[in-house]
Write a structure and sequence with these properties.
With 464 residues, this protein is of the alpha/beta class. The protein is 51% helix and 12% strand. It folds into three domains: 61 residues, no CATH class; 318 residues, TIM Barrel; 47 residues, no CATH class. The strands form two sheets. An eight-stranded parallel barrel has the order 4-5-6-7-8-9-10-11, surrounded by five helices. Strands 1-2 form a two-stranded antiparallel sheet. Strand 10, helix 13 and strand 11 form a beta-alpha-beta unit. Helix 2 runs antiparallel to helix 7. It is globular and about 65 Å long. The two termini are 20 Å apart. About 1% of the residues have low confidence.
Length: 464
């Protein structure tokens, strides 16, 4: 149901929780799991910004009351940088559509596998075409954890907070300011893990590696300094840097060293004595979504695992950071994933593979899928490159169907969403095991200390 106003929100939830200006108190835990679905539905679909803001605040405060706390993974990655544990890779999952159901499947898997080494994330570009701003994404993930009875730290990450090279060349400060605004919005929403992607500013035409990397490390340092100024008291946000743009030239150890040396110098220039990045994303041969063949299948990829191993070793030994991050991994063959913990890859980003499970599920109604594909053909023709087959076009653009059809997907029957969730859970279980992310609760709790952060109550809810 969609609430007419904030008073109806309060009336609908009063049997389970008590809302006051100080926060949310739980009156009936069993009923909380019933009202949470309506709160998520209104958060995502209600046209009233007052109601959306109120739903976010109620979910945030309710989560804190139930010991579900947005957290930074910084402590865990510092421990890896000091070689206090090894052979474990954190799974970072981008959720583009059916977010509540996918998040619930991920939390169920984590509980079953006794894992805390996983991250919910969403990229800057994904926020646009999936119609999910940071506050909505955070609250949906928190609600999924509440629904599944989870307690503990929840890691939510801004992925690929990217700068555009063309815009930067025309007006550097304006492009950097745009990144600052997104960072501010994300931190306010509980994104306590942020990946800065200024790798797009690398200029390989320059004569030296330092000159090639200069804009990359300078902007990364500038934005790290900004993050340190904005982070809530008691929380050190985990910041990631990036060298090789995904889909481009593979990264070398020399490039990594040049980046780190320049980054450390510039960070000290902008603000002295603060912590820098906790990980570094590199290019090893993957592409986001995989390389799509004319028939819509994915080409085999030769991954440079030696680069992951070598640069991770240098990262820990010389700079005390956790190691490398692998992007574009979800469409890799199953027999590739065990290599990531073996090469001490700190984190693996996974997105398109889960999107594919949703679209290719036998449980997704055919008429809805055909409706989405028809919409893509009518509205996304600009994305169809010369020589691209229809199958390639659909595969590459169907991620853009999640936003316009958010309501239709959320209105699917519970049985349908549960069945798709079960398919996703099977894949999540496989990944947790291959990445050695299972049985990590004690490890994460040893190094991560969640901090409760209060959110200001929305004016409309306070007045009511």
């Amino acid at each position: 149901m969609l609430y007419k106003d904030v008073n109806e929100l309060k009336e609908n939830t009063r049997s389970a929780i008590k809302i006051s200006k100080e926060g949310v108190l739980v009156e009936d835990r069993a009923k909380v799991k019933k009202i949470i679905d309506d709160l998520v539905y209104n958060l995502c679909l209600n046209q009233s910004q007052e109601i959306k803001d109120s739903c976010f605040w109620v979910i945030w405060e309710l989560a804190a009351e139930l010991e579900v706390l947005p957290s930074s993974i910084q402590g865990l990655y510092e421990a890896k940088g000091q070689a206090k544990y090894s052979k474990i890779t954190t799974a970072a999952v981008n959720i583009r559509g059916l977010t509540y159901d996918v998040a619930r499947a991920l939390v169920r898997t984590a509980i079953k596998c006794k894992s805390l080494a996983y991250i919910f994330e969403i990229a800057k570009s994904e926020m646009s075409y999936t119609f999910q701003r940071p506050k909505e994404y955070t609250a949906v993930c928190l609600a999924a954890a509440i629904k599944e009875g989870f307690k503990g730290p929840l890691f939510i990450q801004g992925d690929h907070f990217q700068l555009k090279a063309k815009n930067f060349s025309q007006d550097p400060e304006k492009e950097v300011e745009g990144a600052r605004q997104l960072i501010s919005e994300a931190i306010a929403a509980g994104f306590y893990n942020i990946d800065i992607d200024s790798s797009t500013l690398v200029d390989l035409s320059k004569p030296s590696i330092d000159e090639q990397q200069y804009n990359n490390y300078d902007v990364a340092a500038k934005l790290t300094a900004f993050i340190r100024q904005k982070e809530p008291q008691g929380i050190t946000i985990s910041v990631g840097g990036e060298i090789g743009e995904v889909g481009g030239k593979n990264t070398t150890p020399e490039e990594f060293k040049a980046f780190m040396q320049g980054y450390k110098k510039q960070l000290d220039h902008y603000v002295k004595g603060v912590k820098g990045i906790s990980k570094i994303s590199i290019q090893t041969g993957t592409a986001h979504g995989g390389v799509v063949l004319a028939d819509g299948s994915i080409a085999e990829v030769s991954l440079d695992f030696d680069a992951l191993r070598t640069i991770s070793e240098i990262a820990r030994r010389d700079y005390g950071i956790s190691g490398t991050v692998q992007h574009g991994a979800s469409t890799l063959p199953d027999d590739a994933f065990h290599h990531f913990p073996q090469t001490e890859t700190a984190e693996v980003h996974l997105a398109t593979g889960f999107q594919n499970i949703i679209y290719e599920s036998k449980h997704l109604p055919k008429d809805l899928k055909e409706k989405i594909y028809s919409w893509l053909k009518e509205n996304c023709q600009a994305d169809k490159k010369e020589g691209m087959s229809d199958e390639q076009f659909i595969y590459k653009t169907r991620k853009k169907g999640f936003g316009p059809f958010k309501k239709e997907l959320m209105d699917l029957s519970q049985d349908t969403r549960d069945a798709i969730g079960q398919e996703l859970e099977e894949k999540f279980t496989f990944l947790f095991k291959k990445l050695n992310a299972s049985e990590t609760q004690a490890l994460v709790n040893r190094y991560v200390n969640p901090v409760r952060i209060k959110q200001p109550i929305p004016e409309a809810l306070a007045k009511s």
